[in-house]
Write a structure and sequence with these properties.
1000 residues; alpha+beta; Cytochrome Bc1 Complex, Chain A, domain 1; 4 domains; 7-stranded mixed beta sheet; 34 helices; 29 strands
Length: 1000
């Protein structure tokens, strides 16, 4: 009996936990939401949201702890973030460091976490369904239950081993090193220098080797001991919120959650914010100040922030968000409209953000060169606009319109990824009553003019702080920030300037927004939707083809939303014929979006989205939103394209923006540049950003040439379009034919077609491209090792590539990042260059140069048989197959997702709309031996079919002069264009080949 007692006691504890679960009142749910919800509280005071989603093949969970870097001990900056890292490195029940991620990978899953100021969020997602044949080979316990068990151990029995503690500090340090060149992070930390040092807002949250190891050791502080103390103090069940979703009934989810998570200790810990609730984060001397910050990138940014009370408890009226929305208006009469008219600003973003004890309202402006000289005038217009809002006697209709838009959005909200849903919900739950877990963040229910006026009373010159950021302030900086070494200057703004902003004559060009003409009012579905659980997976049909266009159409019967998506590809060789053409097309599309801002902002607020962008084949136009009035928005965009006339002032501003974008390419993360260089080596034609900068410097890009280009590019083209959703075939044809009528273009002669191709990398010869990182301040180096396999023409080969990538993913990450600690950025996956697929391994590092990184990758791959394939049982292999099958079988969550999946098939020319069932069928024929043989042929050294590209980027810490010679037989490419011309090419088919489409 003595041996059985612990089990009996455990069973009794589980029964008690289940019996003492509190089921909270029902949730407010959208009438179109097919999922079932239940909010419960476990006996240990853990709040839980259960979500049953029978249509999903994915399951996910997230747990949010109400503690972040605000609670770091003063002597250990970054401890909360470090703790987040450590929880992934083994628990008492599952001690193997990589077992959690390995288990998820075997089940088509992944995980992540983040640490913010006042919370830490852990989340994962996995495949949760399996075929009948697969389920027969294992016990009947769902794998998601085991995943929850593994996840729950983070919060009951983490190991925090000494070896992992010291090693994982390197990962935190690498993450900080990665962030050093990030202007947004530099600005955020800079603001923290200007605050009450007794308030935790002043802290440095990421952590580094210095803050978490070197300095504490010098002071006799044991980091691991402090980690355990922090965990015990704050990781209490009453400070946690858990959200779980999966294709299981609510009772089953509740049973699992009660079983797995009731054991989390509850210390009845007070909310950490109580430690600083009565401390002002800004004292009087920290208000009304102006920063000048020297940036890394080319930028001209003006940011104004005002501290406010926190409005987390005012979630029904959302006064700060309402005011932030008015400041962020972009239509006629708005703050942005007035500033653009004067030539002072390009873009504006505004919003409100709440912490537990204070809030912030923020306005951020991208300035023009002229705007830099008129900062005080800009601030004068801003405070004039705020005066207008304060003096408005009838704001209730504005609030009511905002509430209507929010209610419509909530009503017709579409499914997103399961992992995003649970992560958001776990975060929101801390500050909402259970009945409003879903709706509280979205709906506006109470108009409270007193609260609105309270917010507005905070938005004064004396209370606001200004940050001016850019390279142009370099002559004004006098200090360096402690953690990012950001050059800056700070001073208090004098009262005379305050009066200058507030005493100016009222602006006649600003006014509050007019009623929104795009608010949809017709929501009827034009066809009866399919019954619940059924899915119309048939691809789009071609309903029109002539010399001018091809139209593909798919009526939606699955998603039950009155929405539609329209994608147009305006194919023309003028978009990418030369670097000059590419630059002109880029500027043209920028100018079009800029000219449409005032008109389309109301549509975007009403739930529509649109974009006009350049690609290598022409101009791509994307419109999405409610089917009621989507045709009106499309017609307005096309009309603007046809009647476009460039304004000299706006042209100069947009040209400057485009040039800055190209210059800032050199400030990208090294791993991103390594990827870019792979594409530059393989695609033909492909222009380099340096080509664009040369064009912009030779005087050929001017208003006159742009005006002519805008006429030429629309004069000859062929349109390929896809329309999907709650829209009729007749209306689709009318919409698209009107595009042709309005623009009045001619067909493109076959001889003018631009045929894009991709290099066939030689078999058996490594191809190297080696480059210096243009940013001398970035000490990170990077490598992208890419194994191109070939075009996606063989379904079996395609799924083997995916399966192999899934198998390699976690071992690569675990070995190169967790064990060897080469750097924070370690990636493995399947990549596409146009339609040519392959497998890549990417590492960014400060501790190893690109040659050493290649050596480590080669060693890992050389040991793949011993470390990965040989230990893999047939059951393990089938886990990966099952996970990939289930992932592919997951129904499309949204109309948008399905439409883009169909579009990729159309764009790449395969038109395999039934690709997924074919891939699932192919996966059933693949054995472990097939995958191992494929690895040996295409990835392993000496493989009979191996093609390999190695892109190396040398950072300032690893001079390229020290590079090793490339291996014998390899090619070090000095001239990528000459290399391309020396190689055979894969043709890129599909809608790139317009002549072929026209001849059918």
């Amino acid at each position: 009996m003595r041996a059985r007692l612990p089990q009996a006691m455990a069973t009794q504890r589980l029964e008690d936990a289940i019996a003492n679960v509190v089921v909270n009142p029902p949730l407010e749910v959208s009438p179109l939401d097919e999922r079932s919800y239940r909010a419960i509280t476990l006996p240990n005071k853990l709040n839980v949201l259960l979500i049953s989603d029978e249509r999903s093949d994915k399951a996910a969970a997230a747990l949010d702890v109400a503690v972040g870097h605000f609670s770091d001990p003063d002597e250990l900056p970054g401890l909360a973030h470090f703790l987040e890292h450590m929880l992934f490195l083994g628990t008492e029940k599952y001690p193997e460091e990589g077992s959690y991620n390995k288990f998820l990978a075997e089940n088509g899953g992944h995980s992540n976490a983040y640490t913010s100021a006042e919370s830490t969020n852990f989340h994962f997602e996995m495949v949760s369904k399996e075929s009948e044949a697969q389920s027969e080979t294992r016990d009947s316990t769902p794998r998601f239950r085991e995943a929850l068990d593994r996840f729950s151990q983070f919060f009951t029995s983490p190991l925090f081993t000494e070896s992992a503690t010291e090693r994982e500090l390197n990962a935190v340090h690498s993450e900080h090193q990665k962030n050093l060149q990030n202007d947004a992070r530099r600005m955020y930390q800079l603001k923290k220098t200007n605050c009450n040092p007794k308030h935790p807002y002043s802290k440095f949250g990421t952590g580094s080797m210095e803050t978490l190891w070197d300095t504490p050791r010098e002071s006799g502080i044991d980091t691991r001991a402090e980690l355990l103390k922090f965990y015990k103090k704050y990781y209490s069940a009453n400070l946690m919120c858990l959200s779980v979703v999966g294709p299981f009934d609510l009772d089953e989810l509740q049973l699992w959650v009660a079983e797995m998570f009731s054991g989390i200790p509850n210390h009845n810990a007070p909310n950490p914010c109580e430690e600083y609730r009565d401390i002002d984060h800004l004292l009087p001397e920290h208000r009304g100040v102006e920063f000048h910050m020297e940036s890394i990138q080319e930028m001209r940014q003006l940011e104004i922030t005002w501290p406010t009370p926190t409005y987390l408890d005012s979630y029904r009226s959302k006064p700060a968000r309402y005011v932030g929305g008015l400041l962020g208006e972009e239509g006629d009469g708005s703050l942005l409209s007035a500033l653009k008219a004067k030539g002072w600003a390009d873009t504006l973003a505004a919003g409100a953000f709440d912490q537990m004890t204070f809030g912030v309202v923020q306005v951020s402006l991208t300035l023009t060169k002229e705007g830099v000289e008129h900062v005080d005038d800009i601030l004068g217009v801003l405070y004039d606009y705020l005066r207008l809002v304060r003096e408005c006697k009838n704001q209730e209709w504005l609030f009511t319109e905002e509430a209507t838009l929010a209610e419509t959005s909530f009503r017709f909200r579409e499914r997103g990824p399961a992992i995003h849903l649970v992560s958001e919900m776990a975060s929101y739950m801390h500050n909402l009553p259970p009945a409003e877990y879903l709706s509280g963040q979205y709906l506006y229910k109470e108009f409270n003019i007193e609260k609105i006026q309270e917010v507005l009373s905070c938005l004064t010159p004396e209370n606001g702080n200004i940050t001016i950021a850019g390279k142009f302030v370099s002559d004004k900086v006098t200090r360096k920030e402690r953690w990012y070494e950001t050059p800056y200057h700070v001073e208090s703004v004098k009262e005379e300037r305050h009066r200058q902003w507030t005493d100016r004559k009222s602006s006649t060009e600003i006014h509050l927004p007019a009623p929104n003409p795009f608010i949809p009012t017709e929501f009827d579905l034009i066809v009866e939707p399919l019954p619940d659980g059924e899915d119309d997976v048939e691809g789009p049909a071609e309903i029109l083809r002539d010399d001018y266009m091809e139209v593909h159409y798919k009526l939606d019967r699955t998603f039950k939303r009155p929405k539609a998506t329209v994608i147009l590809s305006m194919r023309t060789p003028l978009a990418y014929r030369s670097p000059w053409h590419s630059v002109m097309c880029n500027i043209f599309t920028y100018l079009l979006e800029d000219a449409l801002t005032e008109y389309t902002y109301a549509a975007e607020k009403a739930g529509f989205m649109y974009s006009i962008s350049q690609d290598t084949n022409g101009i791509k136009l994307f419109v999405q939103g409610y089917s009621h009035r989507i045709d009106v928005l499309l017609a307005a965009i096309v009309k603007k394209m046809n009647t476009f006339e460039a304004d000299a002032t706006r042209f100069d501003m947009i040209r400057d923006n485009v040039e800055r974008d190209y210059i800032n390419y050199g400030k990208r993360q090294p791993y991103s540049m390594a990827m870019y260089n792979i594409n530059y080596l393989m695609e033909d034609p492909r222009w380099h950003v340096s080509d664009y900068l040369k064009v912009l410097s030779d005087g050929s890009v001017n208003l006159k040439s742009l005006t002519q280009f805008s006429k030429d590019i629309l004069s000859h083209m062929f349109i390929t379009s896809l329309v999907s959703g709650n829209i009729s075939e007749q209306k689709t044809i009318e919409m698209l034919k009107s595009v042709q009528t309005v623009i009045g273009y001619s067909p493109v002669p076959d001889i003018e077609q631009l045929h894009r191709r991709v290099v066939q990398v030689p078999i058996g010869k490594d191809i190297f491209t080696r480059n210096i990182h243009p940013n001398p301040e970035d000490n990170n180096s990077a490598i992208d090792v890419f194994f191109p396999i070939g075009p996606r023409e063989d379904i079996v080969k395609d799924v083997i590539v995916e399966l192999l990538s899934d198998i390699l993913n976690k071992p690569v990450f675990h070995e190169l990042r967790t064990v060897q600690q080469l750097g924070y950025c370690v990636f493995e996956g399947r990549g596409l260059v146009e339609s040519v697929s392959g497998i890549y391994i990417i590492v960014q590092s400060t501790v190893a140069d690109p040659d050493e990184l290649l050596s480590r990758i080669d060693k890992l791959l050389s040991e793949a048989h011993k470390e990965i394939f040989d230990p893999m049982t047939e059951d393990n292999f089938q886990d990966y197959v099952r996970a990939l099958v289930a992932s592919k079988a997951e129904p499309d969550r949204r109309l948008y997702v399905r439409t883009w999946r169909f579009w990729k098939e159309l764009e790449q020319g395969y038109r395999e709309y039934d690709r997924i069932p074919k891939e699932i069928e192919a996966l059933g024929t693949i054995s472990k031996a097939d995958v191992v043989d494929f690895f040996d042929a295409h990835i392993a050294v000496g493989g009979k079919s191996r093609r390999r590209l190695v892109s190396q980027v040398f950072g300032s810490q690893h001079p390229i002069a020290n590079k090793k010679p490339v291996p014998e037989g390899a090619l070090d490419v000095g001239n990528p264009i000459a290399f391309r011309r020396s190689c055979p090419m894969y043709p890129v088919g599909g809608i790139h080949d317009i002549a072929g489409a026209m001849s059918k």
